[in-house]
Task: inverse folding
């Protein structure tokens, strides 16, 4: 069996802080439904996740932190202690069963990893995962357990391979970068909006790793209001050059969909064009360097109605070599229009006039070009030296 | 923050009576750039840099005491770290020896100073940055902070920037949240100008 696999079950939607929190996993179900309605997801492609064990979560997180998350989920952690672990905050409020909810998401991404690494498939998709801000002993930026870091450490130990992590969330993939900052077997590439205003504020071009990991961290912080053309140019150029330099055994992509111009939390101006192109290049790289081995996750994405379902469906379509255009399935629109507080898009692609033109476009494009050159400077000079 | 919290301890030391030739030998084993000079009672007398030693003549009567810098600006471990940055700035210094009761107990170089300033701005902690333009009068910082408090959001750091004109100031907050939108909305409703990226 070499068909791509889709990790899904409804209990992955239990990762829910409260009704008005911007992080809402209903977007995973919306994506699943969209793929079902469009006839691109058969039941035989769907695999149920397992739940991650405490030992697996401890590949990255401290035992004390896991205990605190368990207690917070039972309502028995004092608010002072919770605060030290980044729990019970506005970003990561405590909720009933939060440990289990987090452990299922980690398990889903580990399930995807095992399927790929054991050769059951070349590409696997874990859309509930891609939480990239969580630290060893602290929740951060809506993330309790960092399934992205855990899955990388897991495949590194279990299968002894070198991993390229590619993060195209609008926010810097700080949790993953710092977890592997001194590790030369894990290369991280994050393209994101500059931390000038945006959370978490890190991810500048000079964060390159340390010790033996120096030169294995890459950051492309783009200017606010970057549009498709410049974003894609940065993504494609950096991914092609970093992959050629690192020659990974497997690729893990984090596919946050919060760089879209509709996203409420960020200030970028990309459209569906970007979300159609990115997974297709990731697949090409996986096929070229990794015998196809590609584990893809979700990530951020806070316009769960107009952006995330189409953006994430495109990862699955790319895995299957399918290109969609034209209208979205009427069945999906009819079902979810009733629930959506905003008018749903009718088509797979965005029209280019969904945002007003950006007056600073030439300046932004030139700035990003300069940033990209700085990010890739070490690789390019090495290449020149070696002819 | 105090100087003792940011200084590098364990400064390598030469006795002032050590010859330049011997110092050159010893220096090869060290990775330090700056060395303290002490007398036999371990009293601090001055500093020499690796470059001073390299450049110095290896004649028989050339000792550390002949090449060391004396009459330097020093600081006390209980001095304020913030103020020390002003001392660096005003005097164009590369480093400042930290002296307590005639003994050298540490060194603050430009590197430590920069790390400290980064920590003071809160830039090393995950946060969203909010810049708010306010009228230059008493109580504005407290009023803005009170609004942030209403949203139960932890403030990682605050900076107050002067504006080009005297009538205004910019308050810069680093907030421990990925979602500053409710705070921004609240500040706008209260009539504050929240600065953001420009299209
Ligand atoms: Zn994000």
Result:
């Amino acid at each position: 069996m070499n068909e791509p696999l889709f990790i899904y079950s409804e209990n992955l939607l239990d990762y829910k802080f409260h009704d008005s929190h911007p992080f809402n996993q209903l977007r995973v179900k919306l994506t699943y439904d969209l793929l079902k309605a469009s006839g691109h997801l058969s039941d035989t492609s769907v695999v149920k996740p397992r739940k991650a064990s405490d030992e697996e979560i401890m590949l990255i997180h401290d035992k004390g932190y896991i205990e605190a998350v368990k207690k917070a989920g039972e309502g028995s952690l004092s608010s002072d202690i919770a605060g030290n672990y980044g729990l019970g905050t506005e970003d990561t409020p405590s909720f009933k069963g939060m440990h289990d909810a987090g452990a299922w998401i980690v398990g889903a991404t580990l399930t995807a990893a095992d399927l790929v690494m054991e050769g059951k498939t070349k590409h696997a998709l874990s859309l509930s995962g891609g939480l990239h801000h969580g630290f060893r002993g602290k929740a951060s930026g809506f993330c309790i357990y960092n399934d992205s870091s855990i899955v990388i450490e897991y495949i590194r130990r279990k299968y002894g391979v070198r991993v390229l992590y590619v993060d195209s969330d609008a926010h810097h993939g700080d949790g993953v970068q710092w977890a592997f900052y001194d590790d030369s077997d894990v290369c991280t590439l994050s393209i994101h909006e500059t931390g000038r205003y945006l959370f978490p504020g890190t991810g500048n071009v000079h964060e390159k790793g340390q010790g033996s990991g120096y030169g294995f961290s890459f950051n492309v912080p783009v200017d606010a209001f970057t549009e498709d053309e410049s974003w894609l140019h940065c993504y494609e150029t950096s991914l092609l050059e970093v992959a050629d330099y690192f020659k990974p055994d497997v690729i893990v992509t984090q596919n946050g969909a919060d760089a879209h111009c509709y996203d409420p939390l960020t200030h970028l101006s990309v459209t569906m064009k970007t979300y159609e192109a990115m997974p297709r290049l990731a697949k090409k790289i996986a096929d070229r360097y990794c015998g196809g081995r590609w584990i893809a996750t979700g990530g951020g994405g806070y316009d769960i109605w107009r952006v995330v379902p189409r953006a994430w469906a495109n990862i699955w379509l790319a895995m299957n070599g399918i290109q969609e255009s034209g209208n979205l399935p009427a069945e999906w629109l009819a079902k979810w229009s009733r629930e959506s507080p905003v008018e749903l898009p009718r088509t797979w692609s965005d029209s280019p006039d969904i945002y007003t033109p950006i007056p600073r476009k030439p300046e932004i494009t030139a700035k990003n070009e300069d940033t990209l050159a700085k990010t890739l400077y070490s690789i390019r000079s090495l290449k020149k030296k070696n002819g | 923050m105090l100087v003792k919290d940011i200084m590098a301890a364990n400064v390598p030391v030469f006795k002032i009576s050590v010859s330049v030739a011997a110092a050159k030998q010893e220096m090869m084993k060290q990775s330090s750039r700056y060395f303290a000079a002490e007398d036999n009672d371990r009293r601090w007398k001055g500093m020499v840099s690796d470059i001073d030693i390299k450049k110095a003549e290896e004649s028989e009567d050339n000792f550390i005491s002949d090449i060391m810098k004396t009459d330097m600006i020093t600081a006390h471990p209980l001095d304020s770290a913030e103020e020390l940055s002003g001392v660096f700035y005003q005097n164009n210094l590369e480093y400042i020896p930290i002296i307590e009761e005639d003994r050298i107990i540490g060194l603050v170089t430009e590197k430590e100073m920069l790390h400290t300033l980064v920590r003071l701005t809160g830039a090393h902690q995950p946060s969203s940055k909010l810049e708010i333009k306010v009228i230059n009068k008493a109580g504005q910082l407290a009023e803005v902070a009170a609004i942030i408090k209403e949203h139960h959001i932890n403030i990682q750091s605050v900076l107050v920037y002067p504006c080009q004109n005297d009538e205004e100031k910019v308050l810069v907050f680093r907030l421990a949240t990925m979602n500053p939108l409710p705070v921004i909305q609240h500040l706008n409703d209260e009539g504050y100008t929240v600065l953001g990226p420009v299209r």
